[in-house]
Each structure stands twice: as C-alpha cells, then as structure tokens.
Amino acid sequence: MLAPRSLPSSALLRTAVQAIKPSKQVAAPLASRSFTLWTRPTEKKKHWDAPPRPAIDASDMPLNPGPPPPENKIGVNAILKQNSESLDRHTTTIFSEFSLEGMTAVVTGGNRGLGLEMALAYVEAGAHVYVIDLPEEPCEEFRKVADHCHKLDRQIEYISADVTNKEEMNEAMPYILEHSGTNSLDICVACAGIMQTFPAIDYPIEEFRKVMEVNTMGVFITAQAAARVMYTQENVGGSIVLIGSMSGTVVNRDQQWVAYNTSKAAVLQMGRNLAAEWGPKNIRVNTVSPGYIRTNLVADQLDSDPEMLRRWSDANPLGRIGRPHELRGVMVWLASHASSFCNGADIIVTGGHTIW
Ligand code: NDP
C-alpha cells in the first residue's frame, strides 16, 4: 500500500471524502419532519384580564391553607377519572398539596435562627408546632413570633430540652403526641446545631466530641425519639428532616471547621440509613444542606473579618449569602405530602456553592 504522502493531492482528498461519506444504510436525519401543533384553537381565543387586586391590609391577610387534598383528587389521574358532568368545575390542588393542616411538627433548635424560621413556616402551612431548644425560657425573637401565631389562632409551643439527652427527648416526643391538637406526630426537624473553629492540629479532643455530640448524636437521638412515636401511629407515617450542611459535602474554603464538617457529613449518611430502615414504615427521612446564611451560628465569623462576607458571597454564582426565609419553601415541601416520594435525598440549598 502506498504511503498517503506519495498520492496526488486529488486522490488524498477523495480518500478523505470517502472516509466521512455516510454509508447508504445510515438513516436520513430527522430534520425533514414537520412541526405540527395539535392543540389548534377551534374558536377565537378568549383572553381573561385579571381584575386589579384590592390592596390587602396586614390585619385582614387571608388565613390559609385549606386541608391537604386526598390523593384521588391530585394530578392527571384525577382529571382522567373525573366524570364528564363535573369537567367544568375548575379546581386546582397544587398549593394545598403543601398544606400541613391537621399535622403536628417538632423542630429542634427552633428558639432562633433557621429553626425558628422553619417553625413559623410550618405554623403558616397549618401545622401545630412544638419547638425544642436548650434555654429554660424562649428568647425575645421566639416570643414575638409566638405572639403573632397566637393572634392568627395558630399553635406554637416551646419545650426546653437538650437534644443530646436521650431521656429528655424520649419524654418530649410522646408528650407532643399526647398533647398536640392533631393526635399525631407527623413531622420532625432535627435542626439544633453548634459550630466551632480550631486548627485541626490543635483541636481539643473534648471540644471535637462536643460538636459530634450535638450535631451528630443529637440529631440521631431526635430522629430516633420521633420515629419511635411515629412507629406507634397507625396509617400516619411521617417526615423527618435532618439539617445537614453543604459542609457535609464540601470543605469551606479558609475555615478551620474539621469537627463541624465531620459531624455534618455523618448527618448526610445517617439520613440515607434511616430512610432505608424507616421507609417501609412510611416514615421518610431526608436531609437539607444549607449554604452560608447569616444567623448567630456564623455571626462571629462574619463580624471578625470584614472581607468574609464578600468571600462567602463570591463563592456561589448568585453572589450573595442566603437569607433564613429562603429555606421555607423546601422545608414545607419536604414536610408535606407534596414530597411523598422523596426519601433518602439531600437537598442542597446554597445558591450553587457546591457546583464549582
Ligand atoms: P443558631 O445558632 O442560630 O441556632 C441553633 C439553635 O440550636 C440555637 O437555638 C441553639 O440553642 C440550639 N441548640 C444548640 N445546642 C442544642 C442542644 N444541645 N439542645 C437543644 N438545642 C440546642 O444556628 P442556625 O439557625 O444557623 O443553625 C441551625 C442549623 O442549621 C444547624 O444545625 C446548623 O449547623 C445548620 N446550618 C446553618 C448554616 C448557616 O449558615 N447558618 C449553614 C448550614 C447549616 P442555644 O442558642 O441556646 O445554644
């Protein structure tokens, strides 16, 4: 065979063209298929202009939501099963699928910070909420939120207990079941957590243990105590959400948080294990991994270095840190029937911090 170099240039070109020419068997590209619009309007399209909304005064904000819809009223299947006479009735269920009406939720670490934000979201979604936190008495922030809830005729209660104390937690959960207005414990959020900074080389072992004790053992003790109560409920099931952190998946640049990050990585794996063991009992377990959000937990770090806020903000594509209320949607979704097939997942809420 001749070396290509010795062929005339036209022969070289021919060989190259032959090499890329499609064989006859290759199917023609789909480009020739024409586009058809199935939903051709048969009559003149009606336009509906929404009437201007009357301004709502904060004092007469509507109380919502209604009860969650029964499963047979949800989605495409419900439409297919609807009988033709009722087809005109336009009902939508999507928002009420997020309703927590008739459910009881417990949130640890809910005296302030992210836990309090979650507790309020659950109250607004219709749940009867119990908050568990360390101090004997709730702080001013909690009291204000509780006053607001009571004015709305919604229930939020405060229990002082330590999540690392199994006796206290195993007492608190049955108490909640017994006293809740719904006769059930449906939702448990293990949110209590602490944070420390030490260089790994000098990390005092007792301090490391303390972080693991609250952030990992405390989460397990909370989830176990709640699940024990949920196990006793017939036809109820439950949703347990463990608050992890993006620090369970990635290392925070320039932060000396080895104990915190280790404790959060353990929470993510714990969530998957509990999801596997309790799923057959219809108890779903998921984890939420927030990114940087200003609360007391990270206030010291932010305040100690004026550059810190910029560095944390630049670390995600949105260019800012999160706000506590930006967890409301995901927390209500995970607690509600709207997430009924979500189990063993880790939901990352970081503005995109972990994609780089
Ligand atoms: P906060 O410090 O504002 O709130 C934590 C709450 O947990 C406090 O009320 C604290 O009570 C309570 N707590 C601590 N130890 C115990 C205990 N042994 N028993 C009962 N309650 C306890 O922090 P955040 O709201 O920011 O944090 C909430 C969760 O979110 C934590 O698990 C944290 O790791 C996680 N997270 C937070 C992020 C952030 O940027 N803020 C990012 C990622 C995850 P007290 O004040 O009395 O100590």
Shape: globular
**Considering the protein shown, what is the CATH homologous superfamily?**
NAD(P)-binding Rossmann-like Domain
Oligomer: single chain
The unreliable regions are 1-20
Number of strands: 7
The count of helical stretches stands at 10
User: For the largest beta sheet, what order do the strands appear in spatially?
Assistant: 3-2-1-4-5-6-7
- CATH architectural group: 3-Layer(aba) Sandwich
The percentage helix is: 25-40%
What number of structural domains do the residues give? Answer: 1
Q: What's the alpha carbon Rg, rounded to whole Å?
A: 28 Å
The class by helix and strand makeup works out as alpha/beta
Task: Note the main sheet.
Answer: 7 strands, parallel
Strand content: 5-15%
State the name of the first-level CATH class.
Answer: Alpha Beta
The end-to-end span amounts to: 51 Å
**Series of secondary-structure elements, N-terminal to C-terminal:** HHEHEHEHEHEHEHHHE
Bound molecules: NADPH dihydro-nicotinamide-adenine-dinucleotide phosphate
* CATH topology assignment: Rossmann fold
Q: Kindly report the average pLDDT value.
A: 89
Describe it.
The structure is a single chain. By secondary structure, the chain is an alpha/beta fold. The model is unreliable at 1-20 (pLDDT under 50). The protein has a seven-stranded parallel β-sheet, with helices on both faces. It has a single domain (100-355), classed as Rossmann fold. The two termini are 51 Å apart. It is globular. It contains ten helices and seven strands. NADPH dihydro-nicotinamide-adenine-dinucleotide phosphate (NDP) binds at residues 108-109, 111-115, 133-135, 162-164, 191-194, 214, 218, 243, 245, 290, 292-293, 295-298. Belongs to the short-chain dehydrogenases/reductases (SDR) family. Pfam families: adh_short_C2. Keywords: NADP, Oxidoreductase. Residues 42-67 are annotated as: Disordered.
